[in-house]
Amino acid sequence: MNSQDITDVFFDLDHTLWDFDKNSKLAFKRVFKKHTINIPINDFIEVYEPINFDYWKQFRENKVSKVDLRRGRLTDTFSIFNIILTTNKIDDLADSYIDELPVDNHLFEGAEMILEYLTKKYKLHIITNGFNDVQRLKLKNSEIDKYFSTVTTSEEVGVKKPNPLIFTSALKKANADSKTSIMIGDTFEADILGAENVGMRTMYYNYRKENLPKKYTVVNSLLEIRRHL
165: Cβ–Cβ under 8 A, 6 or more apart, which residues? Predict the structure, then answer.
């Protein structure tokens, strides 16, 4: 990759900089204590994470609504444990979870170091499919908001990655050209193919250790980004 003409670096947030799985588990521990849910947290998370991942895929594809996402991922998980809760109770749990999620703000190893390195060379930005208020709280509470010139959320734009509109909106907000911009993220379809389709360069953060076509730039840790930028 020729990095000499790159001016702007766009990051995904969850699962790329912000350690969603770790923070989510801690949030659920507090939610379960508050609402007296007696399921071992590790057992719950093992079932919940693939269900949540699938709901987010459906949400990106506009197959479920925000409400369906928040309710469905919990209802489906609890049903595996033969626990049936009312819609009102599910909504209470979902609200508590959203409140608790930005409380812990563990970042992936090397996140602050790589942002400190990159901010001296490029303008940095966020493009995220998360909800506006929650994502901004995550950035603020983890104290990395200072690194980013712009933040673009799917809720703000009205479409989700990989829809081209969220990328073109982010580029416009950043006053950046797609040809001199790069997108770094962990979801191949949403982050990599989405950015590629509007002419941006890409870098895949492969913390899940997936196999990608060799033509793509892949890093297995955040600090590896220094080899390319």
Answer: 157, 158, 159
pTM here? 0.90
Q: What is the pLDDT at residue 213?
A: 85
pLDDT value, residue 61 = 87
Per residue in 65-82, pLDDT tens? 989 999 999 999 999 999
Q: pLDDT tens across 22-35, in order?
A: 999 999 999 999 99
Report the top-level CATH class of 20-100: mainly alpha
- Cβ neighbours of residue 133 under 8 Å, at least 6 residues apart? none
Three-class SS of the chain: CCCCCCCEEEECCECCCECHHHHHHHHHHHHHHHHCCCCCHHHHHHHHHHHHHHHHHHHHCCCCCHHHHHHHHHHHHHHHCCCCCCHHHHHHHHHHHHHHCCCCCCECCCHHHHHHHHHCCCEEEEEECCCHHHHHHHHHHCCCHHHEEEEEEHHHHCCCCCCHHHHHHHHHHHCCCHHHEEEEECCHHHHHHHHHCCCCEEEEECCCCCCCCCCCCEECCHHHHHHCC
Would you list the domain boundaries of the chain? 8-18+106-227, 20-100
Q: Does domain 8-18+106-227 sit in CATH 3.60.21.10?
A: no
117 touches 226 (CB < 8 A): yes
pLDDT tens-digit map of 89-120: 999 999 999 999 989 999 999 999 999 999 99
